[in-house]
Amino acid sequence: MSFSNILGQDKTVKRLRALILSGRVPPAMIFHGAPGTGKFLAALEFAKALNCSHTAHREKPAAPAAPDPDDLFAAAAPEPAPAPAPEQAPAPAHTDLSDSCGACLSCLQAASGAHPDIRIVDTEMQAAFLDEAETTNLKIDTLREMTRWAQQKPMLSAWKVFIVRDAEAMVTGAQNAILKTLEEPPPGTVVILTVSRKTALLSTILSRSCMIEFGLLPRQAARSLLEAQGADASEAAALAALGGGSLEKSAEAGAFLKRVSALRPGDPSKAFKFTAGLPRDSHKAREEVRTLLDLLLARAREDWRAAEGPDKSRLTALLRRTLDLRRMADRNVSYALLLETALLEGERAGIKLEDLVRPRQPGRG
Ligand SMILES: [Zn+2]
C-alpha cells in the first residue's frame, strides 16, 4: 500500500503529500467525510509515509520553528531521526519524498500493523486495553492512556502518530481528555481523528485541528475498489451505484441484496420475513428501506418505458406511490410500514421482491 492505493481522493491525497514534503505537519488533524470514503486508510498511509526512511521527513527533519502558540503547524517539529539500523538491508531506490517506500523496516512494520509509533485508538483497541467487551463509546480512560503514550519518545521513527478511528465515538469527557495534547502536543506527535460527523466533536477540538476533507468517491473509483475487494464487474457496478460514493453504503447494499436473493421466490410470507430481517439499528434499517425503494423505482421506470395500455397506467400509479414513499423515508415515518407498503404496491403492479435484484428479462412488460 501507498498513497497510490487511495482511489478517488486525488485532491486530498495531493494535500497530504504536500504536507509531508513541506515538513510542516499539523499536530492535530481531522479527516472528515462520509463513511466508507477512505479516511482511515488515508490516515494509515499518511502515518506510514511520515515515518518512512525515505520520505522528505526522514531525510530532512523540519528544524524546530520558533514556537508560536497560534501556529498549528509549528508546534510539532520532530526530533532528528535516528540513523537506520546497520543490519537493515539496503532498500530499493525510492525517489518519491512524499510517499512511503513500502520496503524499509518502518514501512514493513506499519503494513503489518505492528509499528510501535503508529497507534490506532478505536473501540476494538479499547476493549483489549480495558479487558472488557467492545462498546460503541470511546471512554475517558482510553484517551487518557493515549495522552500518556503521547508523552513518551518515539521508539523507532521520527513521529508518533495516533489515529483515533471514528472519533465521534469519544464521550465528552474523552474529548476533553485529549484537548491538552492537541493544544500543546509533545514534539513529533501527530493526532489524526477520523470522523463522519464533525458536529459530534467539541468546538474546542475542531478549532485546534487542521481539517482534511474526504468527498464522496467517484463512481469509477468505487467500482475499482469493490472489484479489488472481490466483487465481479457487474456486481461492483451495481454496488457502486447503490453506495452513492460511500463504500460503507455499498457494503450495506450488498448485504441487503444478498438477503433479498436468499428469499424463496413465491413465498407468500417473504415481505414479512424481509421486514423481520431488517437491521436493529434504526438508522441502518432506514438506509436499507431507502435502498429498496430506489431499486423499486429503478425497476418500475424501466418497466414503464416498455409498457403499454393498462400495464402502463398501473406502473404510472406505482411510480407515483413509490416516489411518495421515498419522500416519506426521509422523514420520520415507520420504515417497516414503508417497506411493507412498497412491497405490496410493487407486487400489485407485477414487480416482485426477487425481481429487484435480477437483470430485467428482455421483452418483459
Ligand atoms: Zn519506507
What structural keywords apply?
365 residues; alpha/beta; disordered C terminus; 15 helices; 2 domains; binds zinc ion; 5-stranded parallel beta sheet; Rossmann fold
Set down the secondary structure blueprint.
Layout: H1 10-22, E1 28-33, H2 39-51, H3 56-59, H4 105-111, E2 118-121, H5 123-130, H6 140-151, E3 160-164, H7 172-183, E4 189-195, H8 203-208, E5 210-214, H9 219-228, H10 233-243, H11 247-262, H12 270-276, H13 282-306, H14 309-329, H15 335-348
Parallel strand pairs: 1-4, 1-5, 2-3, 3-4
Helix pairs in contact: 1-2, 2-4, 6-7, 9-10, 10-11, 11-13, 13-14, 13-15, 14-15
Describe this structure in words.
By secondary structure, this protein is of the alpha/beta class. It folds into two domains: 3-215, P-loop containing nucleotide triphosphate hydrolases (Rossmann fold), CATH 3.40.50.300; 220-357, no CATH class. The protein is built from 15 helices and five strands. The protein has helices at residues 10-22, 39-51, 56-59, 105-111, 123-130, 140-151, 172-183, 203-208, 219-228, 233-243, 247-262, 270-276, 282-306, 309-329, 335-348, and strands at residues 28-33, 118-121, 160-164, 189-195, 210-214. The protein has a five-stranded parallel β-sheet with strand order 2-3-4-1-5, with helices on both faces. Helix 1 (10-22) runs parallel beside helix 2 and helix 9 crosses helix 10 (233-243). The protein is elongated, with a radius of gyration of 25 Å. The two termini are 48 Å apart. Residues 59-77 and 361-365 have low confidence and may be disordered. Zinc ion binds at residues 52-54, 100-101, 103-104, 106-107.
